[in-house]
CobQ/CobB/MinD/ParA nucleotide binding domain-containing protein (Eubacterium plexicaudatum ASF492), 273 residues
Amino acid sequence: MEGDKTLNIVFWSEEDGCGTTSAMAAVASVCADAWHMRTILMQSSNQQGDLHQMLGMGMQVGSMSSDDLYGRRDGWELLNGLAERRTLTAERLLEHMVPVIGGRMYYLPQGEYKKQEKYSKAVKMGIRCVIALTQQIADLTFIDCGSGQDEISDYVLSQADVAVVSISQERQNLDAYFQNRHIFQKNVIYLINQYHQESIYNKKNINRLYRLYEEELAVIPDNPVFRHISGKGKTERFIHRHIRCGKFDNQTAFMQELLKTSALILKAAGMAV
């Protein structure tokens, strides 16, 4: 990694069902497994926590109970309490994370939330504090903001080094988004998850229709095998198994595109891999 700055990579979508969580888990796994970066994954406290569905229970270490590991105890609630009492440190933050790869990949378990228009000062302060502390313990912080706009998403996106905006491969949704395109302060990568090359709205045509540069649009191909395994909490295991697959591996094409997408996102943040 070039330099010592932790990068904040924020995944967000205007619409539901674009696979922001699964895409983030896949990209973060590539960064940890292919390039040995220390990664932390979180979901902002405006949505149901489902990272454990993608990444499993992790390595059962420390004082974590099964409730912590399955997200029944809420990580944000605990961290917000520590932040409010001014006892939250980088070390204590890491203690509340689920280790997927010891020393290299962690995620924050959380419970269920209903999106709100307004959030308490304590919640907003806790999120600011957590994002700041990740600077001390990670190379990359991945934050899933889900879909839509609210106070939490607006703040987290404002802190992003790269905003990864998930879009669907449907003409009406593409038109709706790009006709009223959101303006982000930082670099933006548009990402199609479960991408179908045979669609008339494939990558080449989307670039042309919406005047995107080639490096602005990334894709993760549709892969039923990966979807099935990822849904069982084995995203990182799948990536680890196939990351250096040869040309006769049936996951080669998928992994090559996923690696390309991950590299594009890091390049947008100014990092070469």
In short: The chain has one domain: 7-269.
